[in-house]
Amino acid sequence: MGAAGVRQNADANATLSGQRTGELAEGAGEIKSILNAGSKADALKSVDELPSNIQSKVKSFFKGGSSSYVDFSVEPMEDGSYIVKMTKPGNVPGSKAIYYKIIDYAGSTVRVYKETYDPAGNLVHVKDK
Q1: pTM of structure
Q2: What's the Rg (C-alpha) of the chain?
Q3: Domain total of the chain
């Protein structure tokens, strides 16, 4: 896949994951999280409040992150799937990596990937996990 394909794929992922809600079609609205936590411990405590069909997948995903991760969230999508994400601050001040897990309505994992951002907020890399 060429650079344009990677960029197009990255743009689609960013929009899907709610990172660029300002670019969504008018009337699409903001994505509302059903779980927001600033620490791994708080995120794990909140998992039991999620729909039962996704609890184990979310818990496993959050447990995979170290205590340096921040901004844990779960966002429902209109099609019944969920976007689970957690952010890891980068070693370069201002940079970060956002890890995503897409879970379908039945509770099956659809995709796991990572987006890396530079200190200026530019998406520099998308990697499937």
Answers
A1: 0.74
A2: 14
A3: 1
